[in-house]
Amino acid sequence: MTQAPTALQSERRQAIDETLADVRQLVAGGPPDRSVLAAITARLERLAAHADWFTRADFPPPAATEGVGASTRYRLNAADGDDGLALYLNSINPGKTTWPHNHTTWAVIVAVQGEEENRVYARTDDGRNPDHAQLEVAREVTVRPGTPIAFLPDDIHSIHVKGSEPTLHFHLYGLPLERLTDRIGIEPETGKVVRYNASQLKPSEEAAV
After folding, report:
1. Rounded Cα distance, 21 and 15, in Å
2. Three-class DSSP category at 21
3. Residue 191 burial (CB < 10 Å; 0-12/13-18/19+)?
4. In terms of pTM, does the model score above 0.85?
5. Bridge partners of 144?
6. Contact 102, 135 (CB under 8 A)
7. What is the strand order of the sheet 116-123 is part of?
8. Is the pLDDT of residue 14 over 50?
9. 156 has which bridge partners?
10. Pairing of strands 156-161, 168-173
C-alpha cells in the first residue's frame, strides 16, 4: 500500500512545483540570455535556502564503499517527462571530477550543502576540427551555499568536488540530461572530443518527493 506523503513531503513537492512554474514563465519568451539566467538562479536559490527540505536523510549520498567521487543524481520532477525542464539534486562524494563538457542547453547550479569547484573554459582553437579542442581555464567558481553558477548551451566547464562532505546541489537544465545526446566532452590530457553522454553519463535516480 502506498503511504500518504508527510507534511514535509507535501510542502517540498509544492515548493518544487512552484519554483519550476516560475522558471517556465521566465523562459517563456525563448532561450534565456545571461540576464534571464540570473533571474532563474535567484529563484532556485530561494528553494535552496530551505535546507530542511533537502537533507541527506532523504537524498543520501553514495555509500563510502562506492569509492571516492561516487555520485547520485536525483530527478526531482520526473513526472514532467522528457520535453521540458529537468531539476536534479546531485549528491557527490569528495574527489569527483569530470572532463570539460558543454550541455547544449542552459544550466544553473545552486548549492544546498557542500562545495563544488567549477572550472570554466575558453576554447583557444578555431573549432574547425570536430575531434579535437584546445582549452584554457578562463575562471574558477567554487559553488557553495550563496555562490551559484549558470551556463549558456555552449559554455564549457568541469567540476571538482572538494572538501570533506558530499554535496547536495541543484542542477537545473532546459531539457533532461538524458536527452542531451549531442553534448561534447574534452579529454583533458589529449584534447580529444567525445560524445559526453555516451562515455560519461550515468542514469538518474527518481526521487520520492
Report:
1. 10
2. helix
3. middle
4. yes
5. 147
6. no
7. 135-143, 116-123, 156-161
8. yes
9. 121
10. unpaired
C-alpha cell at 180: 542531451
Matching residue, cell 562532505: 165
HSE-up (13 A, CA, CB side) for residue 71: 24
CB contact set of 150 (below 8 Å; sequence gap of 6+): 34, 37, 38, 40, 41, 106, 107, 108, 109
pLDDT at 1 over 60: no
* β-sheet bridge partners, residue 158: 119
Of the candidates 12, 51, 60, 44, the residue with the CA atom closest to the CA atom of residue 165: 60
Q: How high is the pLDDT of residue 150?
A: 98
Please say whether the beta carbons of 170 and 89 come within 8 A: yes
Contact between 108 and 76 (Cβ < 8 Å): no
Mean of per-residue pLDDT scores for the chain? 93
pLDDT tens digits for range 29-62: 999 999 999 999 999 999 999 999 999 999 999 8
Q: By the 8 A CB rule, do 170 and 88 touch?
A: yes
Whether 19 contacts 46, CB under 8 Å: yes
CA-closest candidate to residue 150, choices 33, 62, 64: 33
As beta bridge partners, residue 192 has 132
Find, among 176, 173, 177, 199, the residue nearest to 98 by Cα.
Answer: 199
